[in-house]
User: Fold these one by one.
Assistant:
Number 1:
Amino acid sequence: MKILLSALILSLALAGRATAADAALPAAAPHDWTGAYVGGVIGYGWGTTQARDNLGAPSSDIDYDGFLGGLAIGYNKQFGDLVVGAEADIAYAGLSGSGNGGIWGCGPPDIDTCAFDVRALGTVRARLGYAFDNVLPYLTGGLAVGRVEGELVGVCVTGNWCGSDTKAGWTAGAGLELALDEKWSAKVEYLYVDLGTGHFAQGSGGEGFRADFRFHALRLGLNYRF
C-alpha cells in the first residue's frame, strides 16, 4: 500500500513539473494570412445548356463538362480573425459537349447536332473569410469572363453555322484554405459561373443561334505567399 501511495505521489509530482514546464514555453503565434500570393488552380466544370434560334425555340438539353487549369494571384489582409482579400485568375478551359437539335434550336429535328465549348475562363473576385488559425473558410464572388464556342457540327463553313463569343458575367462560391506553413497553402473551392448568352452566326443572313452558359466548377489550388 505504501509503495502504491508513494508511486501515486511521485506520478503527480512529475505531472505537475511537466505541466509547469509546458506553461513556461511560449505559445505558438496564430497563423497570419496577410500578404500577397501567387498560385495555380486545377479543377472540373460541368453545366447544361440549350440551343435556341431567333424565334426562341429551344433544343433538347445539351450537357457539357471538362477540366480547367491556370494561374492565380491575390492579396489578403487580416483584421483579428476576419480575413479580407482579392483574387484574380486565368485558366484554360476544356468544357465541351454536344447533343441533338431536338426541335429547331440549331437545325432540323433529329438530324443536326449542336456542339458547345468553354475555352477560357478568368475571374476577378473578392474574398471574405474567418480564420481558425491556419484554417480559412471563405466566401467569394465577382466578375467572370469566358470564351465560348458553338457550332452546328459538320456544317461550319467560313463563320456560318458556327462562331465564338467572349462573354462577361459573374461568379460566386465558397472555399476552404489550409496554411501548410508560413509560405504555402492549399485550397478547395466551389464556384458557380454565369457567362450569360453566347451568340453564334447561322447561315449567310447572320440570323444566329444562341445558348446560355451557366456552369459549376470545383477547383483545387496551391498558393505561395510572399
Number 2:
Amino acid sequence: MKTLLILRHAKSSWKEDHLSDHERPLNKRGRNDAPKMGRLLSEKQLTPQLILSSDAKRARETVERVTEACGYKGEIIFSKALYAAGQEAYIRLLKELDDKYSHVMVVGHNPGLEELVERLTGEDHRLPTAALVKVKLPIVSWHELVKSVNGELAGLWSPRQLSE
C-alpha cells in the first residue's frame, strides 16, 4: 500500500500586481497557515519520505514553511510540470517514482489537486488553501496508478480546523 498526501499551497498575495502569477508570494495568512500544516504532519506522524511540488513561488514558500515546522529533511523535487497542472501531470510524475517511497506528498494548485483527489478516491472535495488530504492507495507500485485506483480518503484537514 502507498500513501499520498496532497497539499494545496497556502494563501497567496495579490498585492503586487506587477508580478506574474507564477511569482506571487504567500500573504500573511498563508505564512501563518503553512507551519500549522507542518505541525499537523508531525503530530499525526504523516511526514513524507519525498515531496513533489510545483515550482511556483507560493508553492515553494508553502513547502519551506511546512517542512521547517515538521522537521522534514528529505528530498524535495520542484517541477514546472506541476505549475497550474491538471491531475494527469501529478499522475505522470507519481507513476515514475521509485517504489522505495511508500509515503509521498505533492504540493500544488487547484483545480488540479481537487481533480486528483476525485480521480484517486471517487470523492469530490473542495480544497481551500493549505488544505491537506491523505489518500491510502491499494497499490504496491506507483506504476499501478490508473484511472480507477479506488483509493481511500483517510484524512482531510484545513488550517481553519486547527488550533493555533
Number 3:
Amino acid sequence: MFTGIIQAVGVIEQLEKFPGGVRLTIAAPELSLDDIGLGDSIAHSGACMTVTHKLDSHRYQIDVSEESLHCTAGLDRQGTRVNLEKAMRLGDMLGGHMVSGHVDGVGEVISFNSIGENRELVVRAPKNLAKYLAIKGSVVVNGVSLTTNHITDVADGCEFSINLIPHTLAVTNLGDIQAGDSVNLEIDLIARYCERLLSLDKVPFTS
C-alpha cells in the first residue's frame, strides 16, 4: 500500500527490452534505498513495481511486463522522469489516502493552465472510470494523491479538474506534463468497494 505522497522523482536511466517486457534502470539520487531490499515494492508514477536488482545506493532495476506497459503511461521511454514512493509501513503517516499502486486506467490531459501561482489540471478519464470520480473525491494521477474540484460528464468518460499548488509541481513530475499527454489514474479504493457491495444486492445467490 501507498499514500500518494511522492518521496522523490527519479529518471529512467536505461531501458533494456527482453522477451515479454522491459528492464528499467532507475536513477533516484534523492531517494534513500537503505531500507529497500530485493523484492520490495516502489510505486513508479502510480504503478507498483518490484525491485529486482540494487545497483548502488541510488540506482536500481525493475522489470515491467508487456501487460503493464500496455496498461500504463510513462514507463516505456528512456529519460522519462517518474514519481517514486516506497511502500508504506505500519505506523507511517497517511498524508494522502490509501493507494494500492494498481493503475486502473490512462487519462488524457485536456488542459494545464496557470491560475495565479497555481495550475489547473484538467484530465479526461475513460468511461469505465468515470462513475468512480466525484467532486471533492480522491484520485491518483501519476502516483500523486489529489482532490477533484469539478467533474463534467462527456460522451466517452468524464473530465475532472484539479488545482495544483507550486509545491506539488516542484516535487513531482506533474510540472512536466502538457495538454495531450497521458497520465496514470487510480480510483479511490472506497468507491471500488462501495460498487461491489451495492452490486451484490442484484446478484441471486444459491445455497
Number 4:
Amino acid sequence: MYMDGSKDILSEMTTNLPRTTKASDAFFNNCMKRRRFVQVPKDDFVKHLEKSKHDLSQVDTDYIQGSWDWAVVKAYYSVFHAANALLIKERGEYSKDHSCVFVALERHDLIPPDLYKELGTLHGRFSDLAAFDIIYGARKVGQYDVDRWASISQADAERVRGFARRFLSFVEGRCYP
C-alpha cells in the first residue's frame, strides 16, 4: 500500500517467466517447438519501433487525464513493440507471444544484465526478466479485469511509464547506434 492509502497493484503481480538458466532454456525451446518466432525482414524493426514510440506518447495523455489503467496498458504495449523491434533488428525474428519475445531477448543476450537491474526499479523485488512479466500482468488487469482495474494507482502508472521510457531508450540506442 502507498502512503496515500492506494493499493500497490504491482506488488500483487507474480511472474511466470523462468528464473534459472535451465528453466529459461526449456521455456525458450518450448517457444521454438511451438513456432512462436517468425522470420521477417530485419528492416521491419522500424515499424515496431515507431509503434512503440506512438504507444508511449499516448501514455502521457492518459496519465495526465488520470486514466491509470490505460496508461499501464499503453506503456506495456510500448515495451512489447520495442522488444520485438530489438529482436527483429538483431535476429530477423518476430513473436506475437508476449512471454516468448522477452525470454528470447534474454536467451540471445540482447539485454545486458546491468539493464535488467536498472529496469528492475519497477519494483524493488524485481531485478531481472520478471519486470517484463509484471507489467504484462498489470496490463491484463487494466485491460480485462473488471473487478480490479480501478485499483491501478497513479504510482503504478508512473513506475510502468518510467520502465517503458527506459526500455524504449535502450532499444533505440541499440537499433540506431
